[in-house]
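Its record is quoted verbatim for completeness.
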Amino acid sequence: MKKERVVSNRVNEESQSKNQEQSPEIGYIYLIKNPSSNELSVCASEEPLSRGAYVIAPSRYGLDYGMVVGSAMAMGQYEPGSMQCQGACLHGDSFALPTDDDDLLAVGEPEHDLLQAEAKTTNVVPPETAFQKEFIKNNDVPVKISGDIDWIDSVATTADHDRFLELSAMEEEALVICREKIEAHGLEMKLVAAHYLFGEPKIIFFFTAASRVDFRDLVKNLVSVFRIRIELRQIGVRDEARVLGGLAVCGRDFCCHAITDKLNPVSIKMAKEQNLSLNSTKISGPCGRLLCCLSYEYDFYYEEKRKLPQEGSRLKIDHDLMKVVDVNILSKKISLIGAEGRHLTIPFSAVYHNSEKSRWEVSREYLDELLSN
């Protein structure tokens, strides 16, 4: 038994080294979005691809159907007012812009249009606009591939796209069946989504729960129904929002669903640093956790406030020590209050740090101007 294991391991190592030898040294690096979990993966391609192209590529769950959201080398410069997507916010139903070429297949078209166009094309690649061609020209630069970067298996064909639509319909049925089984077993878990893996016969069920759940009997029951491999993955409430998506309080798609798959930690300190309301209903998202966007400008506020006197420190103005009560980064003004209730607002340019005395002071020029008035 041990000999067989050693031989099989040797065969696997030889096959892996053979695949590495066969892989080209030069390629193009892309970000691939998984439609089931909205997670991004970095993959290499032998040929340049346009944004919005459907591909069959490795994901953290296995070989799956995905979409190119852009070059991993450079996502391009955003111009204010531009209607073109610049990052992972690219959606599958809007990336194919209409063109005058009827022979090209728009991926966002209904299924019956796809079937009619099957005789015209075999690759499900969106028509390249002038913007996309310019993007490829400026950003798709072949680089030397090193490390454990997975390679895109192939560009999705019309048959692959039809199979993906079929599996998506089957996922809805799988959700209904799984929810019935969960209720029958009396398990305290909330089913979020189901996904048929494209590269192998396996269903992945995503669920949330307040604690660990013993779902071994549930898995056995599901295997007897579907007759394929079953995998249950417990995720958090922020991951649930990332998978399902929705509209945030700003009126746009959830950041975790449409912009990035990186759920960075967010703390109440970030809201305090930006002088935001600490009302939990105003700074929390639909998932019940703090808004992801609180972290976007936190670094800016933190760095700017380091260059200014902190709240609670005192500044001497006309023989009166006044306390700093507010530092407004946007208006670039500091609010002060004196011992007798005197209020004063001064600009950032009026203060400087005296390194010899290790304290903040108001410039003599501003004081002279203030006292003269």
About this structure: The first strand starts at residue 26 and ends at 33. Confidence is low (pLDDT under 50) at residues 1-20, 76-83, 92-123. The radius of gyration is 28 Å.
